[in-house]
Amino acid sequence: MFGWFENPRLRGGVHAEEHKSETAELSIASGFPIPKKLYIPVQQHVGKPAEPVVKVGERILKGQLLAYSQGTISAPVHAPTSGVVADVKDFPAPHPSALPIRTVVIESDGQDEWAPLEVPDDPFELDAETICAMVGSAGVVGLGGAVFPSAVKLSLGRKSKIHTLLINAGECEPYLTCDDRLMQEKADEIVAGIRLMLRGMGAPKAMVGIEDNKPAAYQAMRDACRDYPNIVVSQVPTRYPMGWDRQMLRYLTGQEIPADGRAADIGVVVHNVATAHAVYKAICLGQPLISRVVTVSGAAVAQPRNVEVPIGTLMSEVLAFCDWDKTKMARLVMGGPMMGDALPIADVPVVKACNGILALTAAEIEEPEVQPCIRCSSCVTACPVGLLPLEMASRIKVNQLDAAVDLGLKDCISCGSCSYVCPSNIPLVHYFKFASGELVKRQQADHKSEQTKRLIDERNQRMERIRLEAEAEAQRAQEARAARLAAQQAQQAQQAQAKAEETV
Ligand code: SF4
Ligand code: SF4
Predict the structure, then answer these.
(1) Measuring from atom 6 of ligand 2, which residue has the nearest CA?
(2) First-to-last CA distance in the chain?
(3) CB-based contact 424:390 (threshold 8 Å)
(4) Where are the domains of the chain?
(5) What pLDDT score was predicted for residue 504?
(6) Known binder of ligand: residue 422?
(7) If residue 403 lies in a helix (H) or strand (E), which one and from where to where?
(8) Mind listing the pLDDT tens digit for each residue in 299-314?
(9) What is the DSSP string of 38-53?
(10) What is the position in ligand 1's atom list of the atom closest to the CA of 375?
(11) CA dihedral 121, 127, 132, 133 (to 10 degrees)
(12) CA 229 to CA 239: how far, in whole Å?
């Protein structure tokens, strides 16, 4: 069922129940109504949050800049439709904490009127820098969930002698089929995006890896690449987490990314397939990233399907479009069931990172009773990173976080393969997520105490400086007083002498 013995290029992984057939055969639904209100967080990417440039009450057009990117690693956000800026306020984020983040609220006018779009005469004649600049100003980020600003990665390609662009079309998470449908329906546009990315990076060739459970997408992409021999489309085995960059890269090239390194260190840059489509739209159509295809599934929706949704739409509205029965839902997940985030509320916006909205019932998330470990080592065999999940969990249980770190905790990608195969139903990945959270807290506490120490040191230095300055000032005053006194005495002596001379 699983293992790394069959192919040396495949490490670990599991055959998870797919649940893809519910949506894989249906075309991407069109006709999603423009929501009355859209909630666009200014932080939808790795890096610094964007800074709003619009004011409350201002009329805006579809595609207009709402917030500009700040710093080298950041991305702008744009208006998904026309209307009026109703507010700029804190609003719950699509995150397990649902903590509020800065959000631009748009009241749509129903016109969906585009701002003027700039389209180059021949996009394939653009130079690399212009391509990167256009991708950056369109707010394109990695749509596989990583949301790293794509322009930064493309520029890295130019600086680091990249020979291969790897397009990750693994989509290995159960339920999710949005990339599959995109490839079936928009293969030509995706290939145009790949060609532009190659040009932007100055790289000679691209590889596209597609799991072999998507034969129609594979065929569509092969057909679209027929005239481009430098873009090779390959099937990879269906085995979760094949969509993990390192696994896909290892399988397709036989190369390993160094433990603390990046794919660029071995001449490869990895982008998600939906990102290539967003690049096509940014450059060939001049459209910023203001919508995305989302898989809506789970047994609590009567009409599971893929829907193209404006960024900022509330998930509750997307679910309602798919006949959501809220009473049946036991868990709401953004992303896939293995690595996605469980959300406490559905009134949170769809963001660029959101490739799935799953309304799962109790039967779908049933967690059987935990039994004692039987030391079968299935978790070890299933781990794609090559870790010892059981050993790490034992250390975490007794609060030996450093020992778990020594065993590789920081390399764990929280894929859940170990938990999935465990015959004793031990929720191993929960331990690792908890421990990783503790490590972050510890780092923050260390950082805080370092900051506090620095502040105390600075204060002490400041006080010492003030004391020395006060002493110097006192010294100066004393010297001035002494000088004044001496001058007075000299003057008095002169006057006395003058008086004495007069008397004589
Ligand atoms: S898979 Fe489960 S039962 Fe088997 S060794 Fe790992 S933790 Fe123990
Ligand atoms: S969750 Fe971590 S330890 Fe478990 S299989 Fe995935 S990478 Fe390995």
Answers:
(1) 415
(2) 128
(3) no
(4) 378-434
(5) 64
(6) yes
(7) helix 401-406
(8) 999 999 999 999 999 9
(9) EEEES--SSSBPPEE-
(10) 5
(11) -70
(12) 27
